[in-house]
Specification:
six-stranded mixed beta sheet
Length: 364
Amino acid sequence: MTLTIVAWVLMAFAVWYVPFRLKRLLGLTRAWPLALLSAAVLGGYMLILYQGIYTGDNAAVAVIYNVLGLLFVFFIYLFFLMVLTQPLALLGQRVAKRWVGLGAVAAAALFVVFGFINAQSFDVTQHEIAVKNLKQPVRIVHVPDIHLGTQRGADYLGKVLAVIEDQKPDFVLYNGDLVDSDIALKPELFALFKSVKADQYFTTGNHEFYMDTDRALRLIEGAGIRILRSERVNTHGIQLIGMEYMNADRETWDAHVVNTLTLQEELPRIARDSSKPSVLVHHSPVGMRYAADGNIDLMLAGHTHAGQFFPGTFLVKYRFPMHSGRHQIDGLTLLVSQGAGTFGPWMRLGSRNEVQVVNLVPAA
């Protein structure tokens, strides 16, 4: 909560600081038009984001949302660069100051363009994990956070599904935030999943609850994907436990509360055989202690996007200490994906879209 207040105060300061700084550096006659434009970009983007307007089935809103998202990041980067170059401007002459201003604008634009390009593709990462009591190797493709909606559609999904087919997994896990807006709720889009030959499973993320949830789940199920909502299935010698999106416990703060469930309370209610390996699938990397205490061998998560772009890539560790990659907690292995897609500003800077191939092998 404190971090949120600080962020709002910094944005309010930036709306004043950046235009008036650019006025001095570039010799502009007025700063207030830029200040009004900055306020409109930041305010408009926050309105669409926090009021959930982006979740509707409206192509015009989708375009505005994505354009404002990129302009939002451009403004934030420009603010950082203005602050960092303040000492240079104080020392330089008028011409030098002008180049400082133009350089900052160009650099901020370059970061956004590079981040946007970086967000259009994804990496396929391989992970080998030894699991006790596993009788034979099992290959899983783990794909959280595709975010079908205003940014991702049939073309991007087709590329993800092509990789899934190429990897020939035993089963596929779509671990939450498969879809984030009603604009994606088209039968022809979800029909693409029917091309996958392997078994497919889905667990809810937080974003499925910000839109037409019932319709989204019907389309997912109709595509031949089994939805796991805090239940266990036995597949390929594994006890696969798919959890509804929920918080770790009643004491931990969560910015995306969609129900009153907790892993601390729900996980012990799912019966399982301790002689068989257990894989827990939960959208958010929280509640690892409860998973470790519950004799879970592997926990798969996403949600964090690894911060997606700077400075989020730096700040994410304060909310999710285990925000990406592989971690060990006693007998539990936690593997956190950076996510197959993006949310909010359509860019990646300091992180990558990721499809994880998880190769489980019997422990020695």
